[in-house]
Amino acid sequence: MTFEYAPAPESRGIVDIKASYGLFVDGEFVEAKSSFKTINPATEETLAEVADASADDVDRAVAAARRAYDTVWGPMPGAERAKYLFRIARLIQERSRELAVLESIDNGKPIRESRDVDLPLVAAHFFYYAGWADKLGHAGFGPDPRPLGVAGQVIPWNFPLLMLAWKIAPALACGNTVVLKPAETTPLTALAFAEICVQAELPPGVVNIVTGAGETGRALVEHPGIDKVAFTGSTEVGRQIARSVAGTAKKLTLELGGKAANIVFDDAPLDQAVEGIVNGIFFNQGHVCCAGSRLLVQESVAEELLDRLKARMTTLRVGDPLDKNTDVGAINSAAQLAKIRELSDAGEAEGATRWSPACELPERGFWFTPTVFTGVAASHRIAREEIFGPVLSVLTFRTPAEALEKANNTPYGLSAGIWTDKGSRILWMAERLRAGVVWANTFNKFDPASPFGGYKESGFGREGGRHGLEAYVR
Ligand code: NDP
């Protein structure tokens, strides 16, 4: 049962959101000709006007990054670059409460997650790659690996600051300069990061932030002055980018969608598995590329597991992202909410059984009740397409071979989870699962030292760990 809790909202007083923001180019905030609004998805209130970078603005940012690369950052010894990265990491820690609140306001994710997951990982990524900056000769890419030059980086809205850290930290550690475009719906923490670069006295032009919509992203990835494109987002846009980069000398890494199988065998500790399933699909409202969105459960325990899962789902608190008791926050945008609704309706229309706990949703803002579909067939859209929302599709299996076949029956291959008591079964499955990351008796665990990335339509290239350096060196 859900206990009544008094509201426990985190104070907004710690963040100072300006009425308008410029672009961050060559160490300064500069104006653009047009702007767009960013809103709080939990209330639909306008938070700020943000500069909309044109192709000319992108051009200026790339030129600034090139100058900084040629004159300062490229020639700088790794041990000196490391000092800046350590300084940035410490500033992120010092300002982490403020950044967590800002992230929750702009993105809609619960403060519990931005405070306890996103921000600690953001700082950890900068610390981790700061440590590599003067040791690149020992990373396995030859005695003196050289940077590529200017990196154009485009990131999505689901983990705005964390995706920025995944992109910027390794690029800078290897001696590259960057132009980064945050997602249109979540630009504010990237702009706060620009302030941190100023605070850290990072040389002008090493980091440039160009805010805008898809067209700004296109202008960046198609710019002839960049040497490397790093993209995280939808498979569709990833395909467009791969086409535009083909035939150029640009290096490319793509981290795209997923439709991960979370596989529960009959010998799994069921309560622990239920927690893993909940974490796998309801963490960050399911806006997670590696979300465990397909639950594969062994037939003999399916009924019991689903009963326990439903009981657990009735205790999830959906609501104010800034409330410390909230488990599931707001959907990031009206467009994403429409997509989740459309796919869920398709699930019902195709014959799956829909279930949600009783749940009172706030009147304003974008919300979706945690939902589970049973009786799902492998051919259903909800079993094949990335819903990117708090919606779980449940399929059953009888044997490990069947579980494996069903798990691999997807165009994606980003992650997977295995729940069983048997170590040998974990190894047997993990060897055969076509997924970049396989978690065993846990889910959604991240560490800056471990590589992350996909097979098949989930993209290519690895981020994180020593492998993550490879994308940024010659
Ligand atoms: P997109 O792939 O459109 O967005 C990712 C980033 O790319 C954003 O910064 C976006 O800008 C930018 N962008 C859009 N079009 C282009 C382009 N032609 N060239 C270069 N950059 C571009 O994802 P959406 O936000 O539209 O989400 C759609 C679906 O994608 C989701 O429902 C989800 O299924 C999936 N998705 C997967 C993610 C993952 O991590 N695997 C992350 C986000 C989404 P802008 O924000 O302004 O559109």
What do these coordinates show?
- The structure is a single chain.
- The model has no long low-confidence stretch (mean pLDDT about 95).
- With about 475 residues, the protein is of the alpha/beta class.
- The longest helix has 22 residues.
- Helix 1 crosses helix 7, helix 3 crosses helix 4 and helix 9 crosses helix 10.
- The protein is about 40% helix and about 15% strand.
- The chain is globular.
- It starts with 19 loop residues before the first strand and ends with a helix.
- The strands form four sheets. Strands 13-14-15-12-11-16-17 form a seven-stranded mixed beta sheet, with helices on both faces. A six-stranded mixed beta sheet has the order 8-7-6-9-10-18, with helices on both faces.
- NADPH dihydro-nicotinamide-adenine-dinucleotide phosphate binds next to helix 7, helix 8 and helix 11.
TL;DR?
This protein is an alpha/beta fold and 474 residues long. The protein has 15 helices and 18 strands. The model has no long low-confidence stretch (mean pLDDT 97).
Q: Given the structure, what is the number of helices?
A: 15
Mean pLDDT: 97
> How much strand?
15-25%
Radius of gyration: 22 Å
Class from helix and strand fractions: alpha/beta
